Q: What sequence folds into this?
């Protein structure tokens, strides 16, 4: 076999493009690319093929994941600036909106119009549970939880929770708990975003 062809079929070019080649392999690939145009072309074609594959198989993260990640970053930044951690009450069927008035009255407890229809503001964190104010403008994606309980207390607006094929219409003051291992989705039925206290509790 032609030494150049053998080099191109060795797999080292793929490792080089992925950034997984050893320092010695990097030197060898770059030297071969400098000396042989066909090797340089093979590197470019491999790079384009991998980019195409990555784009074709890319998985867009759920809006909920993105929303809660941004909310966590915001919460940590607030802690760095001196905000003290707090532990809002655990949501129960007896919970009232007034139980969370302290956090609802804060100046930054407002909906971000730049959000992608879903926005959250974390107001409390412990290793056992996380509490946030949540705004849903239109609907959430369907999701399932296997390792944490999810509870809601509706503050403003109205919405319909679909869990396991059953629909539950909720209004301000209503409490709702999502069963484990159950597909669920919320669809807003009011003209304004549905605002709620969201709490996620570890099953441990």
A:
């Amino acid at each position: 076999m032609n030494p150049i062809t053998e080099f191109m079929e060795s797999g080292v070019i793929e490792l080089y493009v992925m950034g997984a080649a050893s320092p010695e392999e990097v030197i060898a690939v770059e030297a071969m690319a400098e000396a042989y145009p066909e090797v340089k072309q093979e590197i470019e074609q491999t790079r384009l093929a991998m980019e195409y594959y990555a784009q074709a198989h890319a998985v867009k993260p759920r809006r909920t994941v993105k929303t809660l990640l941004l909310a966590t970053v915001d919460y940590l930044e607030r802690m760095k600036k001196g905000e003290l951690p707090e532990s809002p009450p655990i949501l129960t069927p007896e919970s009232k909106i007034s139980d969370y008035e302290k956090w609802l009255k804060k100046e930054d407890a407002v909906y971000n119009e730049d959000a992608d229809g879903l926005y959250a503001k974390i107001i409390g964190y412990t290793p056992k549970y996380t509490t946030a104010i949540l705004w849903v403008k239109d609907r959430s994606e369907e999701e399932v939880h296997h390792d944490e309980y999810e509870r809601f207390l509706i503050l403003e607006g109205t919405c319909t929770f679909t869990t396991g094929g059953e629909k539950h219409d909720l209004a301000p003051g209503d409490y709702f708990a999502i069963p484990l291992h159950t597909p669920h989705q919320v669809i807003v039925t009011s003209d304004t975003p549905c605002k709620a206290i969201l709490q996620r509790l570890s099953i441990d």
Observations:
- Helices lie at 3-8, 12-18, 23-35, 37-56, 63-80, 101-104.
